[in-house]
Specification:
This protein is an alpha+beta fold. The protein has one domain (4-67, 123-214): Alpha-Beta Plaits (2-Layer Sandwich), CATH 3.30.70. The chain is 15% helix and 24% strand. The protein has helices at 18-27, 71-75, 101-105, 127-131, 139-142, 169-172; strands at 4-9, 36-45, 55-63, 81-83, 89-91, 112-114, 119-121, 149-153, 181-182, 194-196, 208-210, 213-214.
Length: 219
């Protein structure tokens, strides 16, 4: 039984938003709606009272984290949202009634209601396209210009994850320690996605900004 997930090397992410664009194109998302988005964390001074250029900043990709204890699964009244055998969290559009309870339960605000279809949507890790043999990697991974995003089975170790050019994470990425691996804030949901950060201090949700606005996980 697999446990598919995405690992992002934050040190390699330039905030180019190619992952966001690629996801939007392949999944035909409505204008103003996103399955994945990139937020800026920081900048903040490296030392108290410090000023530019002595500051740190990084970009963080946000999408469904395909949580192990997904609250959206528990709260769904129709069983439209399910935890699959491959570890992903999926939505059955034929069963979803658009009640939006799952949206209120999501700790990361990464679901939205498609007003045209009346169905809640989110990142599905391109499972439908991969299962159909259309491509091998989620589009946000295969189109990542910085080789920052990697896809694979957590049960096989993240070193085995595949990137856009066929290399494995273990072969390609700069060396990192277990202490360099992070997750988004765990609110009892146990997110699956991992983030690698070596060159700055992990800020969690404390210094997130999105389009110039303060953005925090406040569920």
């Amino acid at each position: 039984m697999a446990h598919m997930a995405i690992v992002t090397d934050i040190d390699r992410c330039s905030g180019c938003h190619t992952c966001t664009v690629a996801c939007k194109v392949v999944n035909k998302q409505p204008i103003g709606k996103y399955w994945t988005r990139v937020v800026r964390v920081g900048p903040w001074p490296r030392e108290e009272g410090g000023n530019w250029p002595d500051v740190d900043m990084y970009f963080l990709n946000l999408s469904c984290q395909h949580c192990n204890n997904a609250p959206c699964v528990e709260i769904c009244p129709t069983g439209a949202t399910t935890k699959e055998e491959d570890g992903s969290v999926q939505i059955n559009a034929d069963v979803c009634i658009g009640c939006q309870l799952c949206m209120t339960a999501c700790p990361y605000d990464v679901r939205y209601l498609n007003e045209e279809t009346g169905v809640v949507q989110k990142c599905n890790m391109c499972k439908d396209h991969i299962d159909a043999g259309e491509f091998d990697l989620p589009r946000c991974v295969s189109q990542c210009t910085g080789m920052a995003r990697w896809y694979g089975d957590l049960d096989e170790g993240i070193e085995s994850f595949k990137g856009p050019r066929g290399q494995t994470l273990g072969e390609y990425l700069e060396q990192f320690e277990d202490a360099n691996i992070y997750k988004l804030p765990d609110m009892g949901n146990d997110p699956s996605y991992l983030y690698i950060l070596r060159k700055a201090e992990w800020q969690g949700a404390e210094k997130l900004t999105w389009e110039g606005l303060d953005y925090q996980f406040v569920k």
